[in-house]
Design a protein that fits this description.
Chain lengths: ~650, ~170, ~325, ~550
């Protein structure tokens, strides 16, 4: 096929090789510790490059490597589904996200590893971490539904191992819950859906599937409703959408920090990627899916964020929030389908919505990764995750706290940070629309204020307020961690202040969907305030102005005095109210929403208890022999791929 | 519900009741217990007020051949007991209440009364006014007794009683 | 509008817009404290006191601005920066929300709402960074109130947007004129008014600085010019909420254009805002204070009303 | 019931009549006698520690129990000798005795065996151990120590051990006071809150102890003390002066002229009006309703003017002497009073009527700060506070004094047990005292103002009791020689009521704390005493629940 370039041909497999090294060498952990970080970061740079090149090249590249797919084998071995890798613009966009996240989190890893060293939780991480990156990479660039299923399976299994890689009781329980809730049922549904599609299309490569489904889906119920439905269900479980959400907080909360950064920043995006490809690429805009996605997205964002509001454990709080943010993305995605499916078929709003979905997906991986890292920094310094006991880190680590503040502002959509722009595009596309959408836009906006409140709690209780107990730690965390966080913070600001950069990328991406052509004029009106982007204007005014005010009025002329305690002074750890009760009144008033979540969490606890009983066997799964066995079959599998590809397999 | 709120708001029509106090004086009813003042002309320095004064704002002491009755307003509670007990009506509670002052001396009133020397031993024992006050109460032939200090008076009267006995004998 | 502004007319347009915006912001800096002074006077007269001079708030602010700033010494880093950020955000909101002069910055409701909310967010970050329990409790109340009122605000905005298919204030503004009797719009207008009332920290919703139990609450950690900045910016915020209300409810286009229209607009705007503010202060004077829970519950009811408004609007009523 | 009847009924051996409404029981074993007397359901009124060594080389503890139904006071006397004075504590039987015993412990150094919380109560942190200011051999003007010398010694204990903030610290201790804008006098509440829910409360007061008792018994004469007594409290001073005078009059058996009694009652009622209006103002302010505050205080201003007209001063009336009053009320003044009353009544009724419509005010007060009837009785709550919890006591009716002997007083009682019913009870009382004032002014007879009396006999016990605006105000007097008093022990109503506050606070919202505290109309200068309530003992369940939540 056309478009093959020497560059891409070889670049595509560089990450594969790099990322395989760690478990080929997996017996020697000492070398690996930093080694895998290095390898991962290099390969993620490559991934990044691939993404950018794939996105910006004039025509979308579908690169099929003859020496990988070798149609000759089809007749020879009766193997109908050639392994097709390739970069079209959708996958390129998500490759950029993946590359960015895995890059920063592996930079972060350098510093974070010795924390894990201290706690001897390192061993499996350094193998599973590159593996996960690898499989995410492969899942994104694979171009054949069949192989997608296989790789998706492997990715799931790696995720599970990664979640458990701390080998703490909770961690293993979380990974088992993840297994029970996502893999077993979800994979089956996805497989069923894919099978149905393949059957109805007679082919597995994306391009042809897209062509056939576009024609078929209008009249063919199986192809239009059942198969996508099954796949959607599976993906919902994988991305942690309601009602398959219950694994999210445990999985993200229990895994080591950059693992959870990777999971929440990138892995969840892989699910989004497939959703996007399914509904924006395979299928034409079908109203039913618009409605389903909008409803699911809204429900998820409402539920996830409201649950996050009452968390007192930093990582669980973040986990619930990443649920909520994915809800935003799905809502936007659904909105864009909805807008194209129902009259008035407003292409502009629809493309704004689609852009918002992609934009928010990107933003979320930026600030959520950053937030997980900031939580990790606190853990690194104090070894504590409970907001009730943390505090006072702002004075110790100014850079980290600034980054955390930026992230908090971004996720709560404070202008002019990036979260603001994408959320604002979501409102701008949903609120002025028809039917179901305004109410969803309303919910989204209300929930964004809840997000704000919950991150006020998060930031102030870790970095803002004075320390309530002695911190045996001074100075910033290791340089690499700070660097990673600063990169992300910078990107959060950049994507907020100059939204046209990501919007350009998104513009390219959307040409690859059924929105093509309308994109450019679609995006512009949505992002203008007297000809400029509002957040640009705001940034241009607020930052200098506040700096000016600070310089003139406050800095140097402000005296710090002892606070006023009514004459009855007490140590701070006694007097300062506990974050876990900050919003009691609000939660109490909105108890209707919470009572539902109470029920679900009860059922969760039941699952948890059943897991407690499973634990011995569960942890046995991860003991070395089994683990080695897994790696072995993995290697065999990869050899098989290469063998198939090169056609030198005896037969 | 609404009616009561409106009733509250409608107060806005009425004119304010704030007293322009420092600028306009405030009148007090008669009988107001303000700053006590000792009339130096009337006071005889008997010290009844000093005994009655609960907070001990009033004090009395001799200084040279003067007897000083001292009122310190810093301790005064304006109860007016001094006014009640004064035999001469010399202490009076005025209607002055703006006593704030920068100097402590403004809060002190002193009445200096010349002391009477005992016509026998020559020891100062009471103020001249008090003596005169007593004189007026006595019948003329006994008035000289008023000029004796208590001790001499006791001796003299004892002697006199002795003489009287002797005469009887 | 588009990113690349080319033709001269548009440039001129833009310059006008920004000059107007600047004037608005600057005037607001004085107007907001003035309103507060009027409020104090009214409060006094309802209580049959003489009350301070109308300029009293301005005097107070001047005094505070002249003092050096004081801040809780144990507080986190951000707390020092909070007043500046709060003020900057308030001024920004003052720039883009059309008030005295019709500065059509193409600002839409979302931006306006987010900036206005951001003012109190910036403050809350600061007050929760303090080492004083009252300040922390006050901050929590502020945040809870913010969430609850955002519920209503979002509803109002969504219903307006749904009804007019746009978010731009300039376009959506003449609500009443377009549809005198559109139920959703009537509800939305009422909700907006209530938000303005609540965000102005009027009783019974003034819970974050409740003097009896919290002794100043969210602001207790600040003194001197830092306090002045915070108070000043919250006054501006309060005024801007009213301005937003007026912008949306008054049919500006009947005033016509040109200098006459301009003068008329200034006059009408000033009169309306002052009037609304005075009414709010009057109500504030005759109410007691809710507990946080009661306040939130009350706002929740309003929020339900606004949801109804959204639904009505989206089915075209 | 007359006292001799009571003795006959109970068959107490070592009991004697002090006067026909006071029984003195010299108990061998105070605890047993206390238990025995508990059958008659008395209310613990006050406890007086007396240094009796100059007389018979012993310390006395007089517990005063009140039988409100019979209008009878039982003085339960326990005595102990030098050098190790020690008495059995009766706090287990009468929880309300807790403070009184600890006060005696602080001031006289009497030890009370198995007292539940034998901690320092009155004396400040820097007061040295083993120095007892109320002992007769301690000079009234001596300063026991150089503060610098004991600056760095371990602080004495005021609280019993507390659970407080747990390890996971989801709770926090929020200090309310000593210097807090909501509290207009120095006091200290330690509120342990979860979010805004109060799970535990502790109280310490006593920052304004002024050693008045010592001063009175050491350098003042009988007729000087009324002016001191009047300054016990800034709000209800006159009732203290009256109670003192009545105590001495009782001890010396002085008959006060009827007109003087009427004048006393008139001023007492004026004082009650003043105090209640003031309280309404404060309550409205704490509920955030400042307009109501302004209105009530404007009315209160009228009362002040009235007082000024009648007594020559706005607040400290300075009218009482032992045996009568110092000023008369003439026709013009009486008329002025009636006019003012009409004005106030009208305005006040209108105000309360309006306030009753204000939803948020009702919501803030209804079912807030619950104090059940049993708790109120157990802790010896008095006055409107007790009456709002359905405890039907009023000194003016149960132990008629002054002119209340000649009229009958309606006592409003409610059983809402919450802040709202406290407000309403005080409202009713305000109207009632307006009615009483009208009656008094109508029926005041002609006659003298002062009783003639000679020297006051020595070592007589006198109990003077009045119904202060806040409840029963009891003054206990032991007469002394040379025109001086031997022991004078005023007990202000807030002393009893404050003990109930922590019970009311538990489980409430932080936002409601000020109004709950204010709802007893606390008067700290009056009380001058410290309480520490272990909430566990009172609301074990609720506390335990709270702790489980922590």
């Amino acid at each position: 096929m056309p478009g093959t370039t020497w560059l891409n041909t070889y670049f595509l497999c560089i990450p594969v090789i790099l990322l395989l090294i760690p478990f080929i060498l997996s017996w020697n952990k000492r070398i690996l510790a930093k080694g895998s970080a290095v390898l991962t970061s290099i390969s993620s740079i490559v991934i990044l490059f691939l993404g950018v090149s794939g996105l910006t090249s004039r025509t979308p590249i579908i690169t099929v490597y003859p020496w990988l797919s070798c149609p000759c084998n089809i007749q020879t071995y009766g193997f109908p589904y050639p392994l097709v890798f390739g970069l079209d613009r959708i996958s390129s966009y998500f490759l950029i996200i993946l590359g960015l996240v895995s890059l920063v989190s592996s930079i972060y890893m350098f510093g974070y590893l010795d924390y894990l060293e201290r706690r001897r939780e390192i061993s499996r991480l350094i193998i599973n971490y590159p593996l996960l990156v690898l499989f995410m990479y492969l899942v994104i660039i694979v171009q054949s539904l069949f192989w997608f299923l296989v790789l998706w399976e492997l990715m799931g299994f790696t995720t599970q191992l990664l979640v458990a890689s701390r080998m703490t009781k909770k961690g293993v329980a979380a990974s088992m819950k993840y297994y029970l809730l996502t893999k077993a049922p979800a994979e089956l549904m996805i497989a069923g859906g894919i099978a149905a599609i393949i059957v109805s299309c007679g082919n597995a490569t994306y391009a042809s599937v897209a062509q056939t489904l576009h024609l078929a889906s209008n009249h063919d119920v199986v192809a239009g409703i059942v198969a996508p439905g099954l796949i959607l269900a599976g993906l919902m479980a994988k991305t942690g959408l309601i009602p398959f959400h219950s694994w999210v907080p445990d999985a993200y909360g229990e895994s080591p920090t950059m693992a959870s950064a990777l999971l929440s920043g990138a892995a969840s995006k892989v699910g989004v990627y497939m959703l996007f490809r399914l509904f924006m690429y395979f299928l034409p805009p079908l109203g039913v899916w618009g409605v389903v996605l909008v409803v699911v997205g809204t429900a998820t964002l409402v539920y996830g964020t409201l649950m996050a509001l009452r968390q007192a454990d930093s990582k669980r709080l973040l986990a619930y929030h990443s649920m909520g943010q994915i809800g935003y993305v799905v809502l936007a995605l659904g909105a864009s389908i909805y807008l194209m499916a129902y009259p008035p078929y407003s292409v502009i709003l629809s493309s704004v919505a689609a852009a918002a979905a992609l934009y928010h997906a990107f933003n979320h991986s930026l600030f959520k990764t950053l937030l997980f890292m900031s939580a990790g920094a606190a853990e690194y310094a104090v070894g504590e995750r409970s907001l009730d006991l943390l505090g006072g880190l702002g004075r110790i680590m100014p850079l980290t706290s600034t980054a955390a503040l930026i992230a908090a502002f971004s996720i709560s959509g404070v202008p002019p940070f990036n979260g603001f722009v994408s959320k604002w595009m979501i409102y701008a596309s949903t609120m002025p629309a028809v039917g179901l959408l305004p109410i969803c836009g309303f919910a989204a906006m209300f929930i964004s204020s809840v997000t704000t409140a919950s991150f006020i709690k998060y930031y102030t209780s870790i970095y803002g307020r004075p320390s309530i107990k002695h911190i045996g730690f001074s100075g910033e965390p290791p340089l690499s961690m700070v660097l990673a966080m600063l990169i992300l913070a910078g990107l959060c600001v950049l994507f907020g202040v100059v939204p046209l950069i990501p919007l350009k990328l998104i513009g390219y991406t959307l040409t690859n969907t059924w929105l093509q052509g309308h994109v450019v004029q679609g995006l512009m009106p949505a992002v203008s305030l007297v000809g400029m982007n509002p957040s640009t204007v705001i940034a241009a005014i607020v930052f200098p102005l506040s700096g000016l005010l600070y310089g003139i009025l406050i800095s140097g002329r402000t005296r710090g005095v002892k606070g006023w305690f009514c004459g009855a002074e007490k140590p701070l750890d006694k007097t300062l109210p506990a974050p876990s009760h900050y919003y009691d009144d609000f939660e109490n008033v909105f108890h209707e929403i919470y009572s539902f979540s109470e029920k679900t969490s009860l059922s969760l606890r039941r699952i948890g208890r059943s897991l407690e009983t499973l634990l011995p066997r569960a942890s046995a799964v991860f003991e070395t022999p089994v683990y080695m066995a897994f790696i072995a079959c993995l290697i065999v599998f990869l050899l098989l791929i290469i063998g198939l590809a090169t056609g030198c397999l005896p037969g | 519900m609404v009616a009561s709120r409106i009733a509250f708001i409608s107060e806005i029509k009425k004119k304010p009741v704030t007293e322009q106090y420092p600028y306009k004086p405030i009148s007090v009813p008669e009988g107001f217990r303000g700053k006590p003042v000792i009339d130096p002309e009337k006071c005889i320095g008997c010290g009844a007020c000093v005994n009655a004064c609960p907070p001990g704002a009033l004090s009395i002491y001799d200084e040279g051949n003067y007897r000083v009755v001292k009122l310190f307003l810093g301790r005064c509670i304006f109860c007016g007991r001094c006014q009640d007990v004064c035999p001469m009506g010399a202490v009076r509670l005025t209607d002055m209440f703006e006593l704030a002052s920068l100097s402590r001396d403004d809060l002190v009133q002193e009445v200096r009364l010349l002391l009477e020397k005992c016509s026998l031993c020559g020891k100062a024992f009471a103020t001249r006014r008090e003596v005169r006050h007593v004189e007026e109460k006595l019948d003329p032939e006994q008035r000289w007794l008023a000029h004796l200090c208590p001790r001499c008076r006791a001796l003299v009267s004892a002697k006199m009683i002795g003489y009287a006995r002797g005469c009887n004998r | 509008m588009s990113t690349g502004v080319t033709d001269g007319v548009a440039v001129e347009q833009m310059i006008y817009t920004w000059v107007f915006a600047l004037v608005n912001a600057l005037v607001l800096l004085v107007y907001a404290p003035l309103l507060d002074g009027i409020g104090r006077k009214i409060r006094a007269r309802i209580q049959r006191r003489r009350g301070p001079s109308i300029l009293q708030t301005i005097y107070d602010l001047r005094k505070l601005y002249c003092m050096p700033g004081i801040i809780d010494g144990y507080s986190g880093r951000y707390a020092r920066y909070a007043p500046a950020l709060t003020m900057a955000l308030a001024i920004m909101a003052g720039l883009i929300i059309p008030s005295f002069l019709p500065a059509d910055t193409g600002c839409d409701l979302i931006v306006a709402a987010y900036l206005l909310v951001a003012v109190s967010i910036a403050l809350t970050y600061g007050s929760l960074s303090m080492s004083i329990p009252y300040s922390v409790v006050g901050g929590c109340r502020e945040a809870s109130l913010m969430m609850a009122s955002e519920l209503c605000f979002a509803g109002a905005i969504a219903s307006i947007a749904a009804a007019y298919g746009t978010l731009y204030i300039a376009v959506a503004s003449p609500i009443i004129r377009l549809d005198p009797f559109k139920p959703s719009m009537i509800i939305a207008a009422a909700v907006l008014a209530i938000i303005a009332y609540v965000e102005g920290l009027n009783l019974p919703f003034e819970i974050s600085e409740a003097e009896p139990e919290l002794a100043g609450g969210a602001l207790i950690g600040y003194g001197g010019r830092t306090l002045a900045l915070l108070m000043h910016s919250s006054m501006i915020k309060e005024t801007l909420f009213i301005a937003l209300l007026v912008d949306l409810l008054f049919p500006w286009s009947i005033l016509g254009t040109g200098p006459v229209g301009l003068v008329l607009r200034i006059a009408v705007f000033t009169v309306l805002t002052t009037f609304i503010y005075m009414v709010m202060r009057m109500l504030d004077t005759v109410y007691g204070r809710y507990t946080p829970r009661q306040a939130i519950r009350a706002l929740k009811r309003v929020g339900l009303a606004s949801i109804i408004a959204v639904i009505l609007a989206s089915i075209g009523w | 019931m007359r006292c001799d009847e009571f003795i006959a009924k109970t068959g107490l051996v070592d009991a004697e009549c002090v006067d026909d409404s006071t029984v003195l029981v010299r108990a061998k074993n105070v605890l047993e006698t206390a238990e025995k007397l508990a059958e008659y359901g008395p209310r613990y009124s006050t406890g007086v520690g007396i240094d009796y060594r100059p007389i018979n080389r012993s310390y006395l503890m007089h517990h005063v129990l009140a039988l409100d139904k019979d209008g009878l006071f039982i003085v339960l006397e326990a005595s102990t000798g030098d050098p190790e004075p020690s008495i059995k504590s009766i706090t287990p039987v009468y929880p309300a005795a807790n403070w009184h015993e600890r006060e005696a412990m602080d001031m006289l150094g009497i030890r009370f065996e198995n007292h539940p919380e034998p901690y320092r109560l009155i004396l400040p942190d820097d007061w040295p151990e083993g120095v007892y200011p109320l002992r007769k051999d301690y000079p009234y003007d001596e300063k026991p120590y150089d503060p610098r010398s004991i600056a760095d010694r371990a602080a004495p204990r005021y609280f019993s051990a507390k659970t407080g903030v747990g390890e996971k610290r989801v709770a926090a201790e929020i200090p309310l006071g000593p210097y807090h804008p909501a509290l207009h006098e120095p006091e200290y509440y330690e509120l342990i809150v979860e979010g805004e829910r109060i799970v535990e409360a502790r109280y310490r007061g006593f920052y304004v102890h002024r050693g008045m008792e010592k001063l009175a018994e050491s350098r003042l004469t009988y007729n000087q003390i009324p002016f001191l007594a009047e300054r016990i409290c800034g709000i209800c001073g006159y009732t203290h002066a009256t109670a003192y005078c009545q105590a001495v009059e009782k001890a010396a058996d002085i008959r006060v002229p009827v007109r003087a009694e009427y004048i006393r009652s008139i001023l007492l009622e004026i004082e009650r009006l003043h105090s209640h209006l003031l309280w309404f103002g404060v309550a409205f302010h704490l509920l955030g309703f400042d307009t109501g505050f302004m209105i009530t205080w404007r009315l209160r201003e009228k009362i002040m003017d009235l007082a000024e007209l009648l007594t020559g001063n706005r607040k400290t009336y300075g009218l009482n002497l032992v045996g009568g009053v110092r000023r008369d009320i003439d026709e013009a003044k009486a008329r002025a009073v009636l006019e003012a009353l009409d004005y106030i009544e009208g305005k006040f009724k209108a105000l309360i009527k309006q306030v009753k419509d204000m939803g948020e005010i009702i919501a803030r007060t209804k079912n807030i700060g619950i104090l059940t009837r049993d708790e109120a009785r157990k802790l010896g709550a008095v006055g409107p506070h007790a009456r709002a919890s359905g405890v039907d006591i009023d000194v003016r009716r149960d132990y008629p004094y002054a002119a209340y002997k000649y009229v009958d007083v309606n006592v409003p009682v409610m059983d809402g047990c919450d802040v709202l019913s406290r407000i309403l009870v005080r409202y009713e009382e305000t109207l009632e005292s307006i009615r009483l004032l009208r009656v008094f002014i109508r029926e005041i007879p002609a006659g003298g103002l002062m009783a003639e009396y000679g020297d006051i006999p020595e070592l007589r016990i006198g109990i003077g009791v009045t119904e202060a605006p806040r409840g029963e105000d009891i003054h206990y007097v032991v007469t002394g020689r040379e025109n001086k008093i031997y022991r004078w022990r005023p007990r202000a109503p807030s002393y009893m009521n404050l003990a109930t506050v922590p019970y009311m606070l538990v489980g409430e919202k932080l936002a409601n704390a000020p109004i709950i505290i204010a709802s007893i109309d606390p008067c700290f200068s009056c009380t001058d005493h410290v309480i520490v309530i272990d909430v566990g003992s009172g609301r074990k369940m609720s506390l335990m629940k709270a702790l489980r939540m922590i």
